[in-house]
Specification:
- The structure is a homodimer.
- Among the domains of chain A are: about 120 residues, 2-Layer Sandwich (Uridine Diphospho-n-acetylenolpyruvylglucosamine Reductase, domain 3), CATH 3.30.465; about 100 residues, Alpha-Beta Plaits, CATH 3.30.70.2190; about 90 residues, Alpha-Beta Plaits, CATH 3.30.70.
- Helix content of chain A is about 40%, strand content about 20%.
- A seven-stranded antiparallel sheet of chain A has the order 15-12-14-13-17-18-16, sandwiched between helices. A five-stranded antiparallel sheet of chain A has the order 5-6-10-8-9. In chain A, strands 1-2-4-3 form a four-stranded mixed sheet, with helices on one face.
- In chain A, strand 5 and strand 6 form a beta hairpin.
- In chain A, helix 10 packs across helix 13 and helix 14 packs antiparallel against helix 15.
- At the A-B interface, strand 9, helix 8, strand 11, helix 11 and helix 16 of A face strand 9, helix 8, strand 11, helix 11 and helix 16 of B.
């Protein structure tokens, strides 16, 4: 459709000079800074950009984009660097636009349960700012990701089973388009039928359609009562079937996370816990005291029907925080379990009734292939992650892991699911996207990309190849 | 950007012949059929299409679109005809594609809380089909609209305060693009980060980007306990402030609807009820018995603080149905109150904290102008409708009503809201869309329209003029 710009463009030196002149100390072409901006948490090799610009204002973003467009050089927005799918790698060279200094909470409207933040604000920073208002923002990918990055990947996390994902929780955006034009989508009203839903189109666009400069989010009152439980099962099937029944009964559970037995062992070691070495559900209940009590009783009855080994209640906020921190660190616990390894992470999500089949067959295949892995899941959403632990010095291990991933994804698609529940496509799932939605739908995505970024300067090479 | 096709195109006769040949008895150019397809529930004059095709399959839709594209003649998808904004009027001539015969419920997956339907299925028909599964689909615009039309306008209704709108409740689509290509967006999984969110882009696109042929929806278990109450207040301000506090406290109320005193009178007359002639909140609570009890107690305490005159409980399903049918008929009750009148309906939606100002000032202005009206509102969402009752024979009345609407919308925009919460833009709110979101965002919408429908054949003249 159009030629992807490349760092080899003869215009690169002129662009670098123009950026240096415009941005001064906010500009860097130092190798260490470039390498830091050419990696993420994925297993891909570093692909550094040609330079880094540190944005401090919407005007900075508009000017950087206008210059890149003028010189036909790629621009890649960079938040906290916690992508798992290679979103931040400068595979076609170009400029990394670091948004982390745009970290102001611009407005909190407690009376409307909304906040507007700059994209560099991290989820933990936002929740600190909200605490004194008795409010919170529930979306929590494991990492302390930036709100901009979370918006770009349509992120979710452990609370999505009750509170939805970034898709449901972004109300409005300020965004700079490829040509440097600043535009506004959505309002602070809870719903709207005013024209095309540009907000939802941009949420999950992985930096390929525009750069966010302000994001308006839904907030929630801190629940009156919170209870968390760990719940061990004799078999993985029992844990998964408990989850399926909780969801089918409509229990408004706030978190429902699965770890398999060996992942529990990794987490015990990493976070110095003593969880029983058995498949585990980590659950949390939010609501009024009576509603929480009711949810707990329902879930206990379901778990009993599925041969639960035991419940443990974390009643203090400190105990809860310790448990959830351990869950959020499962990725690093997995990494630590095989020194020097890298992780290839799967992210399939299936209709809840298909979850047992999706997980159990994937585990059987990994075991049969003798592939080390960890297994965690936002199972209340039908979403789970196998983290295949590979030795990067052994190319055969990467091949084996990718084969397992392919089998896992194809199974999820056959079961009516998606190749990615929350991580995005990035560099890693472009072929799966095509298998999942078909050439016609990907063609529609490409037509939109072409219309909104005719020179292909926004994060080229992501979502679909050759964009 | 491109020339809007027109019924005056010399290609029209050739198209009509080709459609007649392809569709036989599914094709009609009879005046009565054309006039029936050139109107809706808005106050606009009839603009009949040149012919009507009754689609019975996805292939029918694809063939009709391919022929229209080939001959550069507009095509307008038609569902139940219940639009309030002129969406169905053939303002540039062309073909009305009647979808009402595509009315099959294709699949119900109770174990996943999803269903897939053809676009001509109406919301009442769907709920009949779901009843035996103990499930329901909550989105309920007043009319018995088609699911296709509800998807096209991003509809909501009385239950949206708890269950969200079509934006949150459409999981996947089969859609025919302008060129006749059939494509699929989304899956039955609850969440996904797989590429651009085409589903959400198409939801609310008002027939201008594609024609839906299958729609996959989220379902909900019928609540264990339901209670409904009517609740009268001395002043409109007290009723609105009660609503604001219910929402701010996070009560998961299922319905929270406002009628002002004179609208209560109209509804009493139309539906033979004896509601007290005072501002009224109609509320419904869903959940377990304990949770419903808790919600009721909280709401009663809030209402007491706001000088409630009295609560009435509708405990039987029959009483509840009678009340909600009366509410859904408020539009017709308003029409009946002034024989021969037409209705110009407003649809602003504001952040909840701004709702009292938005409503009370609009009421003051209508009273000062001596404009007859009714007032209903999905106030839990910050959304309300003034229905200005005009004598179509008196042009000055239409002008006055539109002036009041303009004041009302501009106030809503100043308060951080939107010109349309659920009805869509259609013919009526194109200037307001521009005021609300700005030329840059409308420019992005136009670029998408141009990319996906380069000949402008899909419902031209809607959303933005000259599309």
């Amino acid at each position: 459709m159009h030629t992807t710009p490349s760092a080899n463009t003869p215009q690169l030196p002129a662009l670098l000079a123009a950026l240096q002149s415009r941005f001064g100390t906010q500009f860097s072409a130092a190798l260490a800074v470039r390498e830091q901006h050419g990696r993420d948490e994925s297993a891909f090799d570093i692909a550094p950009p040609d330079a880094v610009v540190f944005a401090q204002s919407t005007q900075d973003v508009a000017d950087a984009l206008a210059l890149c467009q003028q010189h036909r050089v790629p621009l890649i927005p960079f938040g906290a660097g916690s992508s798992l799918e290679g979103h931040l790698l400068a595979v076609h060279g170009g400029i990394s636009l670091d948004m982390s200094r745009m970290d102001a909470v611009l407005a909190i409207h407690p009376e409307d349960l909304t906040a507007t933040v700059q994209p560099g604000v991290t989820r933990k920073q936002l929740n600190e700012a909200l605490k004194s208002h008795g409010l919170f923002f529930p979306i929590d990918p494991g990492a302390d990701a930036s709100i901009g990055g979370m918006t770009a990947t349509r992120a979710s996390g452990t609370n999505a089973v009750r509170y939805g994902t970034m898709r449901e929780n972004v109300l409005a955006l300020e965004v700079v388009a490829a040509n440097g034009e600043v535009l506004h989508t959505g309002t602070r009203a809870k719903k709207s039928s005013a024209g095309y839903d540009l907000t939802r189109l941009l949420v999950g666009s992985e930096g390929t359609l525009g750069v966010f400069t302000a994001i308006t989010l839904k907030l929630y009152p801190l629940p009156e009562a919170v209870m968390a439980a760990t719940c061990s099962f004799a078999t993985l099937a029992d844990a998964v079937n408990t989850t399926i029944q909780i969801i089918q009964l409509g229990v408004p559970i706030a978190r429902c996370e699965l770890l398999d037995a060996q992942t529990v062992g990794m987490v015990n070691t990493h976070s110095r816990l003593n969880l029983p070495l058995a498949p585990l559900l980590l659950m949390e209940f939010h609501g009024s005291p009576a509603s929480v009590q009711e949810q707990v009783e329902t879930v206990q009855a379901i778990a009993q029907d599925n041969h639960v080994l035991g419940f443990d209640w974390a009643s203090t906020p400190e105990e809860r925080t310790r448990l959830w921190t351990a869950r959020h660190n499962a990725y690093f616990a997995g990494l630590q379990s095989r020194p020097g390894c890298k992780v290839i992470t799967t992210d399939a999500c299936v209709p809840i009734s298909q979850l047992a089949q999706a997980i159990l067959q994937s585990v059987d295949e990994a075991n049969a292939a003798q592939q080390p892995y960890f297994l965690v899941g936002h199972v209340g959403d039908g979403n789970f992650h196998m983290g295949y632990l590979i030795d990067p010095a052994q190319p055969a291990e990467r091949v084996r892991a990718e084969q397992l991933n392919t089998q896992l994804v194809r199974r999820a698609l056959r079961l009516g699911g998606t190749c990615t529940g929350e991580h995005g496509v990035g560099l890693h799932k472009q072929d799966f996207l095509l298998e999942e939605t078909g050439a016609a739908a990907v063609g529609m995505m490409r037509a939109i990309k072409q219309a909104l970024d005719p020179y292909g300067i926004l994060n080229p090479g992501k979502v679909f190849a050759g964009n």
